[in-house]
Amino acid sequence: MTWWRTGTIYQIYPRSFQDSDGDGVGDLKGIEARLDHLVALGVDAVWISPIFPSPMRDFGYDVADYCGIDPRFGTLADFDSLLAAAHARGLKLLLDFVPNHSSTDHPWFQESRSSRDNPKRDWYIWRDPAPDGGPPNNWISDFGGSAWEYDAATGQYYYHAFLKEQADLNWRNPDLRRGMMDALRFWFDRGVDGFRIDVLWHMVKHADFPDNPANPGYRAEMGEMHAVLQLHSTDQPEVHAIAAEMRSIADSYPGDRVLIGEIYLPVEQLMHYYGLDAPEVHLPFNFQLIDARWDARRLAGLIADYEAALPAGGWPNWVLGNHDRPRIASRVGAAQARVAAVLLLTLRGTPTLYYGDELGLADVAIPAARVQDPRELREPGLGLGRDPVRTPMPWNASAHAGFSTAKPWLPLNPDWPTRNVAAQSGDAQSMLALHRDLLNVRRKHDALAIGDFVLIEAAGDVLAYERRHGDERIVVALNLGATPQPVTLPAGEVLLGTLPGRGEHGLLRPDEAIILRVTR
Fold first, then answer.
1. Alpha-carbon gap, residue 506 to 519, rounded angstroms
2. Could you say which of 58, 165, 262, 376 is catalytic?
3. Active-site option among 198, 357, 379, 512
4. Which pLDDT tens digit goes with each residue over 460-487?
5. Is 262 one of the annotated active-site residues of the chain?
């Protein structure tokens, strides 16, 4: 069984994990210094958000060199040291590949914009103005405003799905495609175990650039990007051949290298990224738990529908949070965040855990003067900013929570003196202890790691299911509500519960989840 099927992935936002040099920003040496936390937690792989050279207008998602390390994070030697240290501890290391767009500071774009006849002109997406001199079509940036930026020097517009400083690459150009595939090989050759591929479904645009249709359900509070449906600017058929080529490269290396695709699409379309004519990404990210209403019947339905939609051989995966979306503790509350942790780590498939969720971190209110995220700066007050979920990891009760010797780049969680790794490590009932126990139980029982999944009929606020492997049967029962719920469970041994002691027979206590090994 491949490691990425049985393992758990842990996402690190590198600016916020651990600062080693006193500048208030996390770095590679800091991550290396904290690897033992990940070993003690029980995860199997680390995914690090972008660490490549960047002007940081979108904090690393504007890459200026695909084969280097930004000096804020360290050097290539520091990366090699981190990789070796992770491997020595049995941890896999995944990088964040950003293939849809580069920084406008990238030498490729500098050449591309220098003249219409430059050899790299077609490495990016350039179009003539519309007849009225305006943008070529109505496409809208995900950060608001037109997705087209006029370049007076050459009299054309270039396309940017995000900031104007993030120019989209033209994957229809074979030379650009070779250059980007070479960048993948550069890191595979260095020993990385895989990649999370940023906005994979954005990578190819309709060749004729027609207008996107208006969104009939648009409301201003959704953000301007939703004023149109991204029918022609995303999820084009040609993207699948590119993903298949990336997969072919990954499969050519030893050691079960993995590709994970960031894809926000309905389930039916998401499934195509497992591979249509050839294998594509191993794990198209399944974000349904992030967006779903926290309701037992709704969750049961989406889990069943997702399982039923998987193609033959397709392995499921689940995510509760990431660097772009509100934290689970803010969405469902502290008590239900414990129940959610059980759900994430007992569903069939590969779970991805976002740093700090193992402590129950919630979104942090960011004063206006300290806002960093361009998403918030461009459309303020809509609650779309991502800074609240990117705040520094609190390690202990010392100055700056042990994250840095200097003022951190973003504020700490206000309860950091008590909600930190050191404090929770000594508390058997803490969120950290719960995650450690869950990952330990998952590792010990094949039924949880790789077993079949069967929903159990339940009512009210109860979500229940069984995991089976060989002769082992494990039942998971979750109370997603704040009142006691009746539940019928088979005889068995409780392997783990989110609340101390045992409740009344036949009832789940409010906000309680249990994992039960069935005995015959």
1. 17
2. 262
3. 198
4. 999 999 999 999 999 999 999 999 999 9
5. yes
